[in-house]
Amino acid sequence: HSMEAHRTDLMTITRFVLNEQSKHPESRGDFTILLNHIVLGCKFVCSAVNKAGLAKLIGLAGETNVQGEEQKKLDVLSNEVFVKALVSSGRTCLLVSEENEEAIFVKPSKRGRYIVVFDPLDGSSNIDCGVSIGTIFGIYLVKDKENPTLDDVLQSGNSMLAAGYCMYGSSCMLVLSTGNGVNGFTLDPSLGEFILTRPDIKIPKKGKIYSVNEGNAQHWDEAITKYVERCKFPTDGSSPKSLRYIGSMVADVHRTLLYGGIFLYPADKKSPNGKLRILYEVFPMSYLIERAGGQAFTGKQRALDLVPKNIHERSPVFLGSFDDVEEIKALYSAAE
Ligand code: AHM
Ligand code: MG
Question: Name one Pfam family in it (predicted).
Fold first, then answer.
């Protein structure tokens, strides 16, 4: 009976969010419409990523992005689709994208109350070989809809209203939190709908995997060097951890969320602020990990307590299972 109910009573992401938002009747329609436009962007990128090898979409577009990296054609395309979908939703007033140096202020006739920060296609080094990549997003509410300013996003991650990511992997999966639990939806390509497949995700309290670009080890600080050494040569009688590193934040964080463990992108002597961007990488992922029962730490403070001074600012981040992050926090306080 329950299998039958499962197959005929489909919990789509729209239905799920409508149910959740029914607690806030005033924002219900607007938030759902905004989310539907984000979902549309994800479906487009998913289809483009799947066709990329065939359609020769892959290749350099001859432009560099804000961070001076070469932009792939898929990045450009994905960014355009997201920006257009978000603006046309009529529910946004300010957009921050990894691919745009300046924030985008939506013209008054299309303005709504939401702000979206996003990385339309993260994990660019994995595009050409078909390894998992993803989209990351965070949503805020503007203070004054008539007058959105950068200060509306240059605030701590605690003011984020919702966050999520979509992973373009062996299946297309969207993970979302609107403040309470974390829920995972899988795209059913035959329906074109995201269906709830992983309700109420909780990250294991402790994990057996660590995930870091160990090629940077010579530049690490003492706390991280010690931590990674302990992963390999535990001193408490436990077995060593396994190393898994894809180099796509969405894929590495997704695995960490489901299997437990820790994902690290530390600062190093070359890049004192690490690599990952606070607004559209560190904040949304920290938000999701915390809502799932884990922790996110920068080496100095809780990641969501950071207050960025500019929209593309970077920060080190260590996120994952509660106990594993606790161990890093202890190493940093011992070093003080
Ligand atoms: P990107 O925005 O150019 O794709 O860079 C971000 C990616 C993350 O997805 C990933 O966690 C990290 O860069 C990997 O960096 P590295 O190659 O230095 O290990
Ligand atoms: Mg990125």
Answer: FBPase_C
